[in-house]
Design a protein that fits this description.
About 40% of the residues lie in helices and about 25% in strands. The chain is of the alpha/beta class and about 170 residues long. The chain has one domain: Rossmann fold. The strands form two sheets. The protein has a five-stranded parallel β-sheet with strand order 2-1-3-4-5. It has a two-stranded antiparallel sheet with strand order 6-7. About 35% of the residues are buried.
Length: about 170
Amino acid sequence: MHSTLIVYSSTDGHTKSICNRISNSLDKNNETEIVSLDDATKLDLSTYNKIIIGASIRYGKHSKKLYKFIRLNKSVLDQKQSVFFSVNVVARKLKKDTPETNPYIKKFLKISNWRPKKIGVFAGRVDYPNYGFLDKYVIKFIMFLTNGPTDTSQSYEFTDWSKVDEFAKELG
């Protein structure tokens, strides 16, 4: 039996939903555990065969805790079958929806100095009704600048779930 750890860093919960989808698509011979980034800091990563880390973008950045986690665990991550994926709304755009073309993946690889064995990027969700006042209007302004949806009465999911499923199948 193989063991897989899936770690998520999520602001609004969408990255965790993607992690759940990946977990459900993995080979049934995998024993899978899904934990938040905060909980993952308490685990012995060396006991897992595969480590998948999924992280969302908020205001153009991955969490500082994510970079710290990777820095502290880089030697173990380098020895394992390690996987990283980013969830961001920029990935809704053609030519920004692959690891090679997504600006947040490029920035992540440069800052983290980590080279996962596999990398993915998925378009996220804009969930205006569930945002606080400040987040709602800052994100609305960002969407306006990037030709995205600005009706704050609605949620917009850009995730291509078939792409998530294909990514998971490739992981085994």
